[in-house]
Amino acid sequence: MLKLPTKSNSTSFNSNTAKTSAENMAKGQKSVIVKLENVRKTYTNGAVGLRDVNIELYKGDFKFITGHSGSGKSTLLKLLYGAEQATDGDVIVNGFNLNGLKGNKLAMLRRKIGIVFQDYKLVPRRTVAENVAFVLMAQGYTYKEIQRRVQPALKMVGLMDKADCFPEELSGGEQQRTSIARAIVNTPPLVLADEPTGNLDPDNAWQVIKILKKLNSFGVTVLLTTHDEQLVRAANHPVLHLQNGYIV
Ligand SMILES: Nc1ncnc2c1ncn2[C@@H]1O[C@H](COP(=O)(O)OP(=O)(O)O)[C@@H](O)[C@H]1O
Ligand SMILES: [Mg+2]
């Protein structure tokens, strides 16, 4: 079992990303982190996911993507983390064009993106700490470095006291917060969340939004899909609305 250090010699979330972002803002510059140019996605069965989408996201942005079921929200995020390839147009993330990006290069890009799903996707037979640590183990981090990173990630989502619990011992909200800790444990500059509050009651949904807002205040760019209009209004961030594959 992964043992967390009791003394905090741990890494923090607000160091480099926030500094770069603050420096850029001070200079009046905004750097682009995500760009979609004339992007169309047609699936092999002919279904259209996106039609002629143009988007620019700047470092430090927090944006919602809304739209009815089937409007293309998940497709948009999948293109950004390389789970699907655009049929036409350019998808640029962190300076990489995802057209034809495969293997190692795609894996490297994904390390700089935290992804959160509606259904958490935790490993059932692993503790909270192990679920969060797993991604770092896979990337060859040392045991010490893993310990140093897992603790602040759990602290960020308020789950220090649940580190040794298994997913089935957690509420839905706690499971989703575990998955957020896993997404941010290697301090990515970009977090993509696909309906992260879809299975949660309003209180737990709001907790998730608060955590994402906190991350964003440290300079992390956040893009999240939802069809919860109330949540969007309460969170008060800009919205991209999709309808039938178009941004409207
Ligand atoms: N893997 C797939 N194969 C074929 N069609 C798909 C696939 N994924 C999504 N689609 C289609 O693309 C459109 C957009 O889907 P999606 O991006 O999942 O929408 P949303 O997330 O807004 O509900 C829908 O018509 C859907 O049926
Ligand atoms: Mg979806």
Summarize the structure in words:
- 35% of the residues lie in helices and 23% in strands.
- It is an alpha/beta fold.
- The protein has a single domain, classed as P-loop containing nucleotide triphosphate hydrolases (Rossmann fold, 3-Layer(aba) Sandwich).
- It has a six-stranded mixed beta sheet, with helices on both faces. Strands 2-1-4-5 form a four-stranded antiparallel beta sheet, with helices on one face.
- Helix 7 links the parallel strand 7 and strand 8.
- Helix 4 runs parallel beside helix 6.
- The longest helix has 16 residues.
- The structure holds adenosine-5'-diphosphate (ADP) and magnesium ion.
- Adenosine-5'-diphosphate binds next to helix 2.
Which features would summarize this protein structure in a list?
binds adenosine-5'-diphosphate; 248 residues; Rossmann fold; binds magnesium ion; six-stranded mixed sheet; alpha/beta; 23% strand; four-stranded antiparallel sheet
Through-space gap between termini: 49 Å
Compute the number of structural domains. Answer: 1
Distinct small molecules bound, one entry per kind: adenosine-5'-diphosphate, magnesium ion
Strand fraction equals: 15-25%
Rg to the nearest angstrom? 18 Å
- In terms of structural class, how would the helical and strand content be classed? alpha/beta
Q: Please state the second-level CATH architecture.
A: 3-Layer(aba) Sandwich
- Share of residues in helices: 25-40%
The average pLDDT is 91
Order of secondary-structure elements: HEEEHEEHEHHHEHEHEE
Major pleated sheet: 6 strands, mixed
Number of strands: 10
CATH fold label? Rossmann fold
Backbone shape: globular
CATH superfamily: P-loop containing nucleotide triphosphate hydrolases
